[in-house]
Amino acid sequence: MKGNGTQPFAAERFSMVESQLRQRGIRDERLLAAMSKVPRHEFVSRQNWNEAYADHPIPIAEKQTTSQPYMIAAMVQAAEIKPEDRVLEIGAGSGYQTALLAELASQVFAVERYVSLAEAAQKTLERLGYRNAKIVTGDGSLGLPEAAPFDAIIVSAAAPRIPQALMDQLAVGGRLLIPVGEADQQVLQLVQRQADGSTTVRTLEGCRFVPLIGEQGF
Ligand code: SAH
What we know:
Strand content: 25-35%
Number of helices: 6
Shape: globular
Mean pLDDT: 96
Number of strands: 9
Bound molecules: S-adenosyl-L-homocysteine
CATH architecture: 3-Layer(aba) Sandwich
Strand order of the largest sheet: 5-4-3-6-7-8-9
Order of helices and strands: HHEEHEHEHEEHEEE
Number of domains: 1
CATH class: Alpha Beta
């Protein structure tokens, strides 16, 4: 650990932003600033602190992972989050991406199917002072109808197809980012709701996420 006391791992965050993100085409300055700020190590167990800012996913409880920083950045950048946006995240996991979204949006709801992960994530977010982020335990393949519509929905787990429930909860102009495909290999898809209510789907890049387990998942 190389922290300097007041800002532990600031150097690791800086090098993550420069070498993993900026060099690979992440250009959203608000997002890069958020990734320079959010203490990713606080979202993983202490035994993984030495690799908290490394270029790969990191194991968390319940055999899940917090995604590779670049993958998180690519999804959040494609979601074009604005300060006034209300955002839904499916698969909160560690809560790391939730914290990034809380830096960028006005309100974040994040659904997680494991109670243990949801509770731990909420605790970490509260400890770090994020008051605009709420973790809900449940089946996120059905979205969060009681808080819909959302300006952006980011799904951090892979689905066999795009759940209709999530498309239905997109506001006009809203963006949905979701890995779609087989259990072990997917493509990232961007769904946008148009002014006339229709949706367009665009395929971005290849990716590999843990499966979305649920009614409209695997
Ligand atoms: N962005 C998170 C990624 C966590 S991995 C992070 O950085 O930590 C994906 C998460 O999706 C896992 O925690 C898994 O439990 C959760 N998940 C899978 N299916 C789900 C579902 N139907 N509803 C809510 N969460 C789900």
